[in-house]
Amino acid sequence: MSTARLAATAGPVLLRELHSHDDYAACIELQKITWGESFREIVPAAMLKISQRVGGVAAGAFDDAGQLVGFVFGLTGYHQRRPMHWSHMLAVRPEMRDHGVGRQLKQFQRELLAAAGVDTICWTYDPLVARNAHFNLNRLGVNVLEYVPDMYASTGSELHAIGTDRLVVCWDSSNRERGNSQHLMQCRIINQDGALPDALPADPCIGIEIPADISALQEQSVDEALRWRATSQRAFLHYLGAGYRIQGLCRAEGARPYYLLCK
Question: What does the pLDDT read at residue 44?
Answer without folding.
Answer: 97
